[in-house]
Amino acid sequence: MTRLIALLLLVAAGTATLSACNTVSGAGQDISKGGQAISNTAEQAK
């Protein structure tokens, strides 16, 4: 029973870690797109 609980905790931790990586990656892409939009607007305002 203890091994089953340990296995389930490891699976849950692995799933949480992978989800966090996707979240950080998505946030980085959003920030990058925001920066590109600001740069494009500045270029058009010249």
Automatic annotation (TrEMBL):
Keywords: Cell membrane, Lipoprotein, Membrane, Palmitate, Signal. InterPro entries: Entericidin. Residues 1-20 form the signal peptide. The keyword Cytoplasm does not apply. The keyword Transmembrane does not apply. GO terms for cellular component: membrane. It comes from the Bacteria. GO terms for biological process: response to toxic substance. Belongs to the EcnA/EcnB lipoprotein family. This is Entericidin B membrane lipoprotein.
